[in-house]
């Protein structure tokens, strides 16, 4: 059942594309400007440091021929820039620039803009301007990311539970450790192989190109994944040499702690913490957050496995030890989570105005539910320990009473031997009584048909159910966390919005897209207004109508634009919920032509549909 829950959450979590984290802050020349003389360089500035690809820039001249430009490099201003040198002489007219870079947190981002020399001209490009996102590559890469998160939590959490809580039957946990190690190895290899096509937007077959893998190994994301693979080798040695019965040595514990921290660093070095403000503090916080999450959620899985699969009696002391360990893990999670939320959001309004903020609210609600389940588990743990203590005390009292009875019988026999007359007849011996165990409280019935002790204990059964609920919610939190790492932080979104150009335009293009998710009441239409419906910046407003033609509120609406003739896009409109309608004020469509507008409507947690319609964008 737990595996099915994980698969459903993975599928739901990968239903939509992950947003890249570096947002374009500025371009030089500025988007849409008309210059008197030709520029020598094109410079893009982003909200965080970016990595450059071999094909990061594609520049089309007014006749729609691709220009030969210099290899992309960083400008002297810093690693958050990308620059190419243009030819010495540029013809008069409008130029289209399509770009693609990789965020410092390993996610690719792309877009396009225009500038003109002398005067603006109408473009009708017929030349390839760059790759689009390949859905198969993106889905495979995201699934590998999810599996890596789950595997590292299982590996670290099970190892900590085994060494700190010391369950009597370690065999089920050793199988968990092997499963976590093998899953993390496979997921990391998949991420390494798929890295090149994921960055370039190519299909999965491009992963077979040896030169692509060679290039990946020279980039920071590739080096991070390579370091993770290297750490898995000594981790395997430690797992093989894990003591069978006695407690591990201090050397083993120190090596295990160092390897766990090293694995956590490979996540911090490839995600939000590696870019933005306060990087050293953010990296430390991220490492502690990953470790605390693994100890808590992975330990919960180990506890649940032990409760269900252990072949020997399961002492309540093991549960009590994990309860204390989980408490301190939650303390670390709260402290680091508050800091990371502040760093990612930047303002209170980002909670409602950005996708990152809304996802964070969902995660906080899930964590609150997880804490409630953890509190329930702690109460059942306390009851189990108390019941065990009372049982031990009662058994001790029974043993003391039996000892006193035996001593009284011995004293009676001694008195009878002393009082017996010498040579007289001996009284007949009393018939031997069968050994009957003394009656005591809560003594289980003997015999082959008697249920096991664990099955008769209501506290233990309730603890199993509460831990199972805790694990289920914990997996959901872990998946939401993974999706959150693939979403543009609120602080970066605000910075990009402040830098985006705005224009007041008069003419609007209105398009209606019907949809049907195939469920009762799941029909409707989306009315999309593009203002002005021309090249350059456009304001977008989208209203969802239900089957009764009334305005309908949906949990999510995504809108993207692709120009198939030029392989430009998809360009995400990044709509935000404005309370009754969805809108954005900065959608840039750089070329005239027939754009494919794709609307994805989600009407419930599991029901969504995507519909496509062509819209004409004029010059």
Automatic annotation (TrEMBL):
The keyword Transmembrane helix applies. The keyword Nuclease does not apply. Residues 424-451 have a biased composition (Pro residues). The chain crosses the membrane at residues 146-164, 176-198, 218-240, 252-270, 282-304, 325-342, 354-376, 467-488. Gene3D superfamilies: 2.60.40.1220. Keywords: Cell membrane, Copper, Membrane, Metal-binding, Periplasm, Signal, Transmembrane, Transmembrane helix. Belongs to the CopC family. This is Protein YobA. It comes from Streptomyces resistomycificus.
